[in-house]
């Protein structure tokens, strides 16, 4: 029998966590034979709500869930964890400037980086979901110097899944038939959804997205805009931000990281940039990656159509600006 691993979810009393905890606890992320101890971190005013979540997890009677540790103390939450889902963040409130939001979140991710550095396993895999996810991941990594920078990633898998779903619907195939879409850059409206390397299985034959949807103009305009603006469309309809789909994407991201990608498959992940494809070095930039043995590798040698190059530069520039703003807050 495998020994249990410790997994922390922050923002554990929030709406993404409400879907995510069940997906993790039933074994969909770390394997159906991997027992788990779940650490749930939220802030002190949310402890009563969190107690309700703990009750529901117990009432799911899940065989792999060996223990649940609810806490408001980062030192407890990050102790000995192998995986960290950093979902909790300060949401943007009415009248709040972008800078105020950034400074609140820089503080949260500084504290959590320090706690990871002190208390987590040195091979902990960290996924930042809380926005601005890419920049929060840099801050967290900066305050956890004893953990390799490659272990800090940001979530663009939701955008990736949105892109697959759009192409599948347009090509009239089931969604598993669509793979290798790419989300480049920031998890923001400057992200670049790129279907030019995607593969679509149409009645058993592998074709390009252009061949499958037979509408290049759609791929270069409506497809890109729909994916970029999907988060806002969900908020407009639901009056709350994406939660079920965000939780699913977080689980997909961590499962790919722990269990690997399929042969010939790549997925999108915000990872520390080495300058590939002209992305600024050191920012957390979403690239296509393959994963084996728990290590991600940026897919090299893809030919980037001129059409996407300006957009790639713009999203890279936005990430550099965000990083500069975050560093200014840190130094202030
Ligand atoms: P929510 O507001 O329902 O839950 C957030 C939870 O985090 C709350 O319970 C809050 O008390 C907690 N929290 C705040 N500060 C904390 C701290 N310092 N430590 C621990 N917990 C803390 O929000 P929701 O809908 O669950 O979303 C969470 C985050 O995920 C937001 O920042 C949202 O923008 C982001 N998001 C990111 C996506 C992505 O694709 N990267 C997609 C969807 C949401």
Automatic annotation (TrEMBL):
It comes from the Eukaryota. Residues 156-327 form the Lactate/malate dehydrogenase C-terminal domain. GO terms for molecular function: L-malate dehydrogenase (NAD+) activity. The keyword Lyase does not apply. The keyword Oxidoreductase applies. This is Malate dehydrogenase. The active site is at residue 187. GO terms for biological process: malate metabolic process; tricarboxylic acid cycle. It holds the Pfam family Ldh_1_C. NAD(+) binds at residues 42, 105, 129-131. CDD domains: MDH_cytoplasmic_cytosolic.
């Amino acid at each position: 029998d495998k020994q249990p691993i410790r997994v922390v979810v922050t923002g554990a009393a929030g709406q993404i966590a409400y879907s995510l905890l069940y997906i993790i606890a039933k074994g969909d992320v770390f394997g159906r034979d991997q027992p788990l101890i779940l650490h749930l971190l939220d802030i002190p005013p949310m402890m009563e709500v969190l107690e309700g979540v703990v009750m529901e997890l117990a009432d799911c009677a899940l065989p792999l869930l060996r223990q649940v540790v609810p806490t408001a103390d980062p030192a407890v939450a990050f102790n000995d964890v192998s995986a960290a889902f950093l979902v909790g963040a300060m949401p943007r409130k009415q009248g709040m400037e972008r800078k105020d939001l950034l400074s609140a979140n820089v503080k949260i991710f500084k504290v959590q980086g320090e706690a990871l550095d002190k208390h987590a396993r040195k091979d902990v895999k960290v996924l930042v979901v809380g926005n601005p996810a890419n920049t929060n991941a840099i801050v967290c990594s900066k305050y956890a110097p004893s953990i390799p920078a490659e272990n800090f990633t940001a979530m663009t898998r939701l955008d990736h899944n949105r892109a697959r779903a759009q192409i599948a619907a347009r090509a009239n195939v089931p969604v598993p038939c669509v793979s290798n879409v790419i989300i480049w850059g920031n998890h923001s409206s400057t992200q670049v959804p790129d279907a030019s390397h995607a593969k679509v299985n149409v009645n058993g034959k592998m074709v390009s997205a252009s061949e499958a949807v037979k509408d290049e103009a759609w791929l270069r305009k409506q497809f890109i805009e729909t994916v970029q603006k999907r988060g806002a469309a969900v908020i407009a309809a639901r009056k709350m931000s994406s939660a079920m789909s965000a939780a699913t994407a977080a689980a997909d991201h961590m499962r790919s990281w722990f269990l690997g990608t399929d042969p010939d498959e790549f997925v999108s992940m915000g990872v520390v940039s080495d300058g590939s494809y002209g992305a600024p070095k050191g920012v957390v930039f979403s690239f296509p990656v393959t994963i084996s043995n728990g290590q991600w590798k940026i897919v090299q040698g893809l030919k980037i159509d001129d059409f996407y190059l300006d957009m790639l530069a713009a999203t890279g520039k936005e990430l550099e600006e965000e990083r500069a703003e975050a560093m200014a807050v840190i130094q202030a």
